[in-house]
Amino acid sequence: MNANAAKVLVASDFSEGADEAIRQADRWARDTQARLVACHVVPYFLRSAPYFTQAHRKDSTDLLELEQAAAEELSRRVRRITGREEDDFDVFVDSGSPDAAILKAATELGATMVVIGAHGTTGILRLRLGNIAERVVAYAHVPVLLARAVPAPGSVLAATDLSPASLPVISVAGEVARQRGTKLTVLHVLDLQSVPGAWLGPGPLSAKAWGAERGLAEKQLRDAMANAGVEGEAKVVEGLSGREIVAEAERLGAELVVI
């Protein structure tokens, strides 16, 4: 494996959500001419593997056997889902805390993107693992794609609060939209929670204040898109950020949301 080549790291727990992550990671790797690396983490607390009932973790030998079985299964899944040959991707298996191991693998392998299913294992196992995807997003030092199945190809939605830390999403979303030949919408939400007194409701003064805030936000948003060399629709709405981003994604039938 070329240490300097771009790498897309996809994490799999052998769930349906992880299979979707493999599909989208494969597409991203092909679009960006990156090396696809698939990883699986065997959690420390597992005495036996739910997918490999014959393997038990009583000692280090059993752990090695379990990791080998996981590597073989992961390789089979990647080949089946992507149609790749075995030498056209890499497999990485580790044991430990899943989120920590994924982050460690991303750093050690020099991944340029991490792809993980938005929903992984279900039932009591998921309760014990916690929300791995959230922790990977929170602590990763590279972009993270949370993969969900989409019914059909759609547009790209970028959401920014216009802070310096959020402006790079405009460039990233613009490049993805260009590669996929699809529409780009860049959204800014005037968040009611961040404006003192907004909860009191509209009035002559608040309406005037909102108009000034909206006009300023629209200009800043258009300027940010121009600085990024990105073309698309600039949109400013009022409301609660999380709710409005989801609503706009649904209205557009967006395939990808970049935040």
Overview of the molecule:
This protein has 259 residues and is of the alpha/beta class. It is 44% helix and 19% strand. It has helices at 16-32, 60-82, 98-109, 124-129, 132-139, 168-180, 204-227, 241-252; strands spanning 7-11, 35-42, 90-95, 113-117, 144-147, 156-159, 184-191, 233-239, 256-258.
Write out key terms for the chains shown.
259 residues, alpha/beta, four-stranded parallel beta sheet, 8 helices, 19% strand
Compute the gyration radius: what is it? 21 Å
Structural class: alpha/beta
User: What percent of residues are in strands?
Assistant: 15-25%
Structure annotation, total helices:
8
Rounded average pLDDT: 85
Query: N-to-C SSE series?
Result: EHEHEHEHHEEHEHEHE
Portion in helices? 40-55%
N→C terminal distance: 31 Å
Number of separate strands: 9
Which blocks of ≥5 consecutive residues have pLDDT under 50? 122-130
Oligomer: single chain
* Major β-sheet strand ordering: 3-2-1-4-5
Question: What can be said about the biggest beta sheet?
Answer: 5 strands, parallel
Gross morphology: elongated
